[in-house]
Amino acid sequence: MDLPPVLLSPQSQTGSHLAETCMERERSPPTAELARDSFPSDQVPSSSLTDTDWFGDEHIQAKRARVETIVRGMCLSPSPMVPGSARAKESSCCPEIARERKRKQSLPTHQGPLKSGLGWDCGPKKGETRVKEQLNLLKQQLRHLQEHVLQATEQGPGGAEQRSSPRAKQRNSFLSSPWTVDSKVHQRSNKDTCGAVKPRTAEVHQQAEEPVLRPSGARALVEALRKELNRAVSQAVDSVLQQMLLDPPGHLTRQELSCQRLASEGRNHPSPPQRSAHKEPLALATLPRRVPPQAGVPLGSSSLATPLDPPMCPVSPRAVPKPHQNPLTNCPLTAVSSHIWENQILSQLLGRGPNGHWSGSPQQDSSSQSHTSAESAQQPWVLSQQQLPLSFTSVRLESRPLLPSVKMEQGVLQGVADMIPFSSIHIQEGLSPGHLKKAKLMFFFTRYPSSSLLKAYFPDVQFNRCITSQMIKWFSNFREFYYIQMEKYARQAISDGVTNPKMLTVLRDSEIFRVLNAHYNKGNDFEVPDCFLEIATLTLQEFFRAVSAGKDTDPSWKKPIYKIISKLDSDIPEILKSSNYPQELFRN
DNA sequence: ACAGGACCTG
DNA sequence: CAGGTCCTGT
């Protein structure tokens, strides 16, 4: 396969991708890192009550009493979420999902109530109550501390802008680096933690570098409060986790047990048939998204400056995705999912659907998909250097969960929700829009997935005949669109007088790419892998050859092309296997 | 853009 | 029968 160097993407483009990757990383909330930071902590959570002494006023005691009453109330009332009510809510706020369900209900399979093994529908147990109590206490403390911090910052010279929206500040302090008040330090610390977990002791160091903006007294107070906040949060996470792991066996789900086993032994997943379907790094949320998903594949000028060789995207024997395991993996994502019920409560409060999907559909970048007819007339094989892929500007970052406002404690709840691993595996019988989205992304890697591959990559889907064939139908439709586009552009090239198929390439700035990207990757959540460009190029050339050779008179002239393309499926990156991948996308 | 259905094939 | 294409309807 000697593809011409024309195939290479323009350097400038690569640069912009890289830059964006980094920027995105900087901007993305490091909450998951925060959580991860706290998990391996070896410090045994000291009694959280000592923290309350720090305030030393009866005000807290009163609040605490109130919280305990609330918690007790929560424990006495049955599960806050009945499937029925959830569905009612779903259909009112998200007609698409409702439609999906309706469709599902028309299927022969009976859509029964959700599985009872999920934890949230069994009544709360003692251990959970304790944990909840503790969690609530800690939340109170956190809020209190935040108030202190806010007061302190309002006294400082930079107080004016922060005073403008203390509520937003609260939320931000959870969504991003919570321990820094100064936005510059904030950014820097985010950059520092890009990919790596920074030890907490670094805070002191940070303080030394911080621009002098406040009176030293206030600064000291801020610093003290910051540390206290830091400690409180890590204790919250630690103790919650500790509670969940140490609770009586009856409380543990099978998955948690396997988590413990894995955590101690490191390897050996108990369920071979699913392969590594459940082996997902805890730190998934922190994985950069725009990085080429294939392990070991470099991104950037170096990789693109050389002719594209096949290893860019190894062609796999059908349905044998080799699991390039993240070394960090020692506990499956699903393992921590007994927080489900808690997550569900929080999700409800935060305006999320019961599956953890954001109930509002993610905002799409529609601007990138509307093109003038002049643009559409552009030939696929013409490199347009000036036309950088606008579509790759991450507009969606702005639209990140400005959730339906829940007046009380939104910041705190958001913070806690983010601290709790976003992992609720929710085995469901239906297919959601999120699944469709994921399937489309998978299409970049595999055009002809086997049903077993699909099962492996949708661990949260309860497969039956209908679901399987529906998913296969999806891919069939994907292919249909794909081949139609290919034929269209091949014919266009011919009518435009192109004679050498090698002149036809699909690049990131070609029109055909934009069409395909708009179809399979609406919203640009994903960086289209280079291997897809190669496949598309090849397909285009094959169509060109066939049509220009006049083979299209044969009714089955496309079959040989299909056959070629069907052999070019590649491995799908592990990150797409994650059951919460759609959520990850929506959260981004 | 998706689903349903007819029809083909191994 | 599973899985594929093609056509059609919304």
Which helices and strands occur, and which strands form pairs?
Blueprint lengths: L10 H17 L3 H8 L10 H7 L2 H19 L6 H11 L1 H12 L19 H30 L3 H5 L2 H10 L7 H10 L9 H8 L6 H31 L7 H12 L35 H4 L35 H11 L22 H4 L33 H10 L13 H11 L7 H7 L7 H31 L15 H10 L9 H19 L10 H8 L14 H7 L1
Helix pairs in contact: 4-7, 5-6, 7-12, 9-17, 15-17, 18-20, 20-21, 20-22
The protein binds a DNA duplex (10 and 10 nucleotides) through helix 20.
**Overall form:** globular
Largest sheet: none
Radius of gyration: 26 Å
Strands, total number: 0
Oligomeric state? single chain
Q: What is the percentage of strand-forming residues?
A: under 5%
Number of helices: 24
Proportion of residues in helical segments: 40-55%
Termini separation comes to 37 Å
Which stretches of 5+ consecutive residues score pLDDT under 50? 1-60, 67-129, 152-216, 240-312, 316-423
How would you spell out the order of helices and strands?
A: HHHHHHHHHHHHHHHHHHHHHHHH
Structural class: mainly alpha
Rounded mean pLDDT is 50
Task: Give a written overview of the molecule.
With 588 residues, this protein is mainly α. Helices cover 51% and strands 0% of the residues. It contains 24 helices and no strands. It has helices spanning 11-27, 31-38, 49-55, 58-76, 83-93, 95-106, 126-155, 159-163, 166-175, 183-192, 202-209, 216-246, 254-265, 301-304, 340-350, 373-376, 410-419, 433-443, 451-457, 465-495, 511-520, 530-548, 559-566, 581-587. Mean pLDDT is 50; it is low at 1-60, 67-129, 152-216, 240-312 and 316-423. It binds a DNA duplex (10 and 10 nucleotides) through α20.
